[in-house]
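ugh ok so i messed up the first submission bc i forgot one of the chains. this is the corrected input, ALL of the components this time, i swear. 907 residues overall. if the numbers dont match what u have on ur side tell me asap before i send this to the collaborators (the ones from the other lab, u know who)
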Amino acid sequence: MSDSAAAIPLRALPPDDRVLARVLAAYVASATIWLVFATAVGLLVSYKFVYPDFATTPGLSFGRLRAIHTSGTFYAWASQALIGLALFVAARSSGARLYSERLAWSSLALLNLAAVLGTVTLDLGFTYGQEYREWLWWIRVILGLGLITAVWNMIATVERRDGEHIYISNWYTIGGTLWTIVMVLVSMLPWYQYGLGQVAVQAFFMHNAVGLWFTPLSLGVSYYALPKLLNRPIYSYSLGVFAFWTNLIFYPIIGAHHFEFSPLPWWLQTTAIVFSVAMLVPVLSGSANFLLTFRGTHEWVYRSPAVFILVGVYGYLLGSAQGTFEAFRSLQQLWHLTNYTVGHSHLTMYGFVTFAIWGGIYALLPRATGKYPYNLAMGIHFWLSAVGVVIYVAALSAAGTIQGLDWFRGLTFIQSVEDAAPYWMWRSVGGSLMFAGHLIFAFNVWTMTYGRSRAELAKAKTVPA
Amino acid sequence: MNRTFAISGGSTLIYTGLAVLMGVLPGIWLSKVPPTPGLKPLTPIEARGRDVYVSEGCFYCHTQQVRPLSGDKPFGRPSAPGDYAYQTTELLGSERTGPDLSNIGARQSSSIWQYIHLYQPRAVVPQSIMPAFPWLFRTVGRLPPGEKAVPLPPQFARGDMVIPSDDGKALVAYLLSLKQPPLAPAQTRAATKSSSIGSLGFDATKGAALFADNCASCHGAEGMGVPGTFPPLAGDAVVNDANPTAHIGAVLHGLSGRVINGQSYEAQMPGFADQLSDQQIADIIDHERSSWGNRGALISAADVVAARANEPLQKQAATPKEALPVAAPASTFDVADGSKLFADNCGVCHGAEGKGVPGTFPPLAGDPVVNATDPAEHIATMLRGLSGKVIDGQKYEVEMPPFADRLSDQQIADIINHERTSWGNHGALVTPAEVTKLRGKK
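and heres the new structure output, hopefully the right one now
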């Protein structure tokens, strides 16, 4: 099974499909605009740690912009890019045409409508007040409709395939989208969300939003993009299937590790810790699968978009393993509620998810449009973002450790603020580099879609025989 | 078709099951947690303030969860499940860039301080990085009737008069409503005494933390156990027995197959003799004996040593009442304690260097009361607070809160002695006995 299965994405001559190219280009372009916007907001917010009296107006205040940054990167940038890539993968890996172009435009319109309304209402101070689900409920209904139309399109496209077999990428992308629809619904219904009950639902939701939406979609896209780039099948198809099911079963149980030592029932917290350790199973099998696919390619992988996926895989491995260790009570005592958590979330959402998306875009968008990015511009983007995120995560990990130790030693609270201050400056330095990288990325998207590119021939040489 | 159905339908079915199990069911169950006794529902203005708190995103930097950890001690007692009964849009938070606010109404009860701090945090805490919220205030040329201007330090006032808007007032009303109700009368008594029963070595927070780590997963954080599986400790006969031998024995060596109150418990309790020190076991036992309405006699580490050696306990552990006189030794001034207590309780307004905030909070450096040989006025100010006093020709409007109920005599003496020996002050030192004497006088 695994041989024939893995061979699917290696079809040498993809069908000339203008509809698919048009759809992917629009999704990526739209997502890129949101990336630049949401990270500009993030950068502004980071400078407010250093200059707290900068831009003191309601619409530019920290409390409102923080939610705009997180929901913008989550539900606009990453979601739009991943759905666009997932639709493309659904069609190409099934050797079929997209089920409905009109449905694809509807999803994109709904996702953008939700993102615009969410951004505007948050800036005016209307919020649901729960981290990562700040958008008002009716805006989250629009987001949910965007997901429903998208998954309908994916499933119907996969149903047009010739053979019996469904390529592993589609398991992840279709599964992840369906689960997220359930998750959005569960997090929206009000009847069991009072007081501590809402804490329990928040614990569940907060982690699922990351682990059952961005993780499976990013992995699914990489399972298609990486074999395409390396021109070889994925190391083990069954390992991918194994990671799919274990991720599904373990992930929903670990949410309560966000509320350790809180008044949530102790057994709920302990269960979450146990399954946080169990998460090593899908994480290690998933990342090993990718790393083994990479084996022996290092002479040229650094000159190809595959290096984005390589960083993404390391981000997945490091970020997730870090998450497991953070869940232990002994370490949580030190790191919980500190900036260490913010470093962790950027290592995962940026070091893993965002790099994986970039890998997917650089790998697949030129195959759709026939326009390749300049290698130099791609390299500058890579290094700005990679160096930036390393500085960012290192600075906040240090800041968080210092905050935790200060509290533990019984120093006055304001001391922990003063001690973390220099590291917040470094965080802004890292963030500035990351943002500069995004501007270069936006230029690359332009050359791959609507602009003119003369880089096609140069690119063709880097693909090994 | 079959395969698509199996993968997407099957996995979604599994996920839905887990979502119900881990999200919906705990939600249903925990939505019904009854409020902590003494917890008050919000008044309309406090509820409006809460909406302001949510829409300005205060919860991104301020938690409202005190954990049973030593680092959380300054913020109040560990939070209990019932504390959140009236809190929908829960605000526990995930990040603590600013201090926890669970008990801020008790910790910083001055509304004027809150107003100044919201208008410009750096006017009262220079190192603060909190955003300023000037849009919760209005600048007026003339005071409307019934309004009081916020007494801003001159460099932040810019000559205008600033009054809080309705949203600003509501937010401060909400902040001041955040007071943790005491968990159980017995426990607060034990907690306030913890500093004075030093010879027994019972530290309430340590005991609570050790209990949470080692015992709560079965006996429950509230000592209620799990019906039929793990026995409750609240109201248990062994826990409340004046003779602690059976209690210590159970913690040291574990238990199983015991019948308690006609209910047989099959689950095995492990022994902790090898994992915990004598002091830790004593702390846990004292925590159990002083929490959830229990009133067992407290024990010391020496009792655990004796029980380990299987010796009959010599003394039938002193009750807390008898233990009290052990405390109150002759006055000793601990410089470190004084400066720490000052930083926790006074430094926010009077400044770490005792310089105050010009026009708003009076300086302590060089103050005549602080340097007076007779400390009576200084002590009385600490005990009962102060407001509207004219010092050096400057009238101070901000109310200083009383500390009589919050600090012990020893702690007040430590703070006063710190003030009297710092920043060039040369006041005569005071003893806790003098504080005790003035406490009695009205």
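quick check: Chain A touches chain B through 90 residues (CB under 8 Å). that seems consistent at least. Chain A has 17 helices and no strands.
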